[in-house]
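Subgroup meeting minutes
Present: P.N., E.W., G.H.
Scribe: E.W.

1. P.N. recapped why we're keeping a running log of single-chain structure predictions: easier to compare across weeks, and new members can see raw inputs and outputs side by side.
2. G.H. added today's entry (274 aa).
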Amino acid sequence: MQFTFAHYQESADFLRTKLGDFQPKVAMVLGSGLGYLGDVVENPIVVPYGEIPHFKASTAPGHKGQLVFGTLAGKPVAVMQGRMHHYEGYSYEEVSYAVRVLRLLGCDTLFVTNAAGGVNWKFKAGDLMLITDQIKIFMESPLRGENLPEFGVRFPDSSYLYTPALQDLARQQARKLDMDLKEGVYMYFPGPQYETPAEVRMARLLGADAVGMSTVPEVITAAHCGMEVLGFTLVSNLAAGVLPQPLSEEEVLEAAAAAREKFSKLLLSCLEAL
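Output recorded in log:
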């Protein structure tokens, strides 16, 4: 279906009844196995996706499927514990629906995370990567259809989907933490099957450093409606063909659990420094 501005307003108005005077400024979309930050939000207001008009369920492993509003690192946040994916049967407009709702609630910055396969030969499982750009080939745009001018222009520029100033902030915080932060380009594949070795070789030739099944729709939508964006990838495994072994979702969740401490430190440090 094509959402109208009234749909987004209805969702935002419902959430305002839960939030009272609280107004979030930073939206955080937490990927596979990374939703634990939502559990440490202070004075949390928890709203399951199923209660929010027009929201869809999050069915992927490691995704709780709820919004958590409150304070984190001294900042008013809206944390998405789990996201929607195209492979769950949702349109790209539905996948990115929550971003526009959070924008209406007052969020002007988006932190987005994911767990993905490493394509760059220099990466290893457990590395953290600052996303500097993205590649979208195998998907239509979440902005397809009638443009809603309340959010942005018909033909938005995509030169800086990931805000350069926030990338600099992330580099600074990583240095303060004495953390090895990789940098690279994230390439989207629709899934749910993992990429083939041939697709991974293609991604590498096209300039990708990591491949995954999320993030890109939300970032396009966020940039369209004027949000600043900071993105991180946890290299949860090396993509197909890099090592002679099959891939599994258990491997992804185990890597997320192992990287929990350092990933949390980096995200909270960046959030506090805003």
